Amino acid sequence: MxxxxxxxxxxxPVQWERYEPARGKxxxxxxxxxxxxxxxxxLNSMRVQLRLGWHYPPKWAAELRHARFINQYGxxxxxxxxxxxxxxxxxxxxxVRAAVASTISNLFADLSACxxxxxxxAVSAGVxxxxxxxxxxxxxxxxxxxxxxxxxxxGFMKAMxxxxxxxxxxxxxxxxxxxxxxDEVIFFPGNASSNNVKARDFHEWYSGMLADTVxxxxxxxxxxxxxxxxxxxxxxxxxxxxxxxxGAMKNNLSGSSAVEQNGLMQSGRTAxxxxxVLRSNALMAxxxxxxxxxxxxxxxxxxxVVADAAADIRAYGFPVAAVxxxxxxRIVAEEFITNRITALSYPYTTNxxxxxxxxxxxxxxxxxxxxxxxxxxxxxxxxxxxxTNVMIEYVLRENQFQIIGITVSxxxxxxxxxxxxxxxxxxxxxxxxxxxxxxxxxxxxPEGSNTVFRITPDADAWTPISGYIPIPAPGTxxxxx
Length: 481
What we know:
17% strand; TIM Barrel; elongated; 14 helices; 2 domains; six-stranded parallel sheet; four-stranded antiparallel sheet; alpha/beta
């Protein structure tokens, strides 16, 4: 790896299934690969952000008692292992939480020798690590709420017992019910009650438990790590308003409201609730959200969280980080600076390197600096994704980053093809990205010129692809072709 890559942060995913394939048995090869990459980052003056990966659970964790989410129809939630959405019940299940806490403890012990290089840690609390339940569409059911496993039902019952001071008569008065004990306390979407109180109680608890999951994980991480803790939110988490929630309550969460039909309510994607709970617990975190800027963008636009998401986050007193979810790269960079957003991840690099000097330099969290003094790194973008007809996924395999289903190699002139040195990948939102965002891979080109990179899909039906990438001379800033 050259000493000057033009990149200042390495995002380092830690996939639970690969780190702890058997309970209490940790993969030395896997953690050695992570340590190696962290140390290589340090040698190149790069800092590291760990991305915890509870959304890639090992088989043994999924087999713990009541470890799977269950909806009101009795469906047990499962998703493909590599999807980033194969969740285990970290929200309601204390045994799953205990397993996660133990893994966090061991992870930081394993990384103690390179902990000074780790500047931030991102929590994982749902699909692709973002605080969320599974979505509403599952097994031909369109209004799935995921609180009906044993732990979830017990949790709701206990929460109502606390809220109503252990007085079942108070519940009956509020709900308009005739319950004889708290053992009978349950809510099913569509159940009517006086002034929709039952639905309100349920949603307040349901979304609150996601916030509780973030706070719990934050406190566990803080036992071992004193740097920045990042909470990554999805785009949609900033689109749900108080009026939207009120509208869904009017129909007792029956699935008929717009914010249920698009899944916001059922998946619990309510950033404001989590931010309020973090603030009330005096826990300072960096809040990350995807951002897309276009001329005249407004809240609720199809593929974007707009600029005022930054204001939403700051209103709670938190610093803002962001990942780029598309749009005009020049406008994005200018808006990032205007709105004092403190991070920029996976830009369309072919556009970013053509920005005027200074615009591409955005600070903190996981940064990319594309300045006049930086050697450029080759980046796969939309055209490559479309040409290969696959969504690119990055995982850490032993001592290097590789791509599932694709091999990346390079040669200089007519020389031998060699494996590319891959140093940066993004693990979130792949395979089934709701926004169709082309995620990128950054590889470090070798010294010299006339370098060709080859991307070879593993499937025989796909044609290998080659591309010529000019290497700019030191001190220049040549746009990538």
